[in-house]
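Review session, final week

We close the course with one last complete record, chosen because it touches almost every idea we covered. It is Cecropin, a protein from Lutzomyia longipalpis with 66 residues. Go through it on your own first, then we will talk.
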Amino acid sequence: MNFTKYFVLFVVLLAVLTTGAEAGFLKKLGKKLEKVGKNVHRSVEKVLPAAQGVIGVLGSAKALGK
């Protein structure tokens, strides 16, 4: 396989991401990603009990069908 293209791309991305000139943009992007992660975590916490209840009902219905 020819990994030269991937290596060059990796080096370019590494150089772009490690420069201090764009630190403001990366900081904003990081905060947005963190906010998305928190929203997903909160949503899963709200939905998880209901999903577990549905799984329990389906399990008992399946047991009755045998």
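Two points worth writing down before the exam:
The chain has a mean pLDDT of 82.
The two ends are 53 Å apart (CA to CA).
Good luck, everyone.
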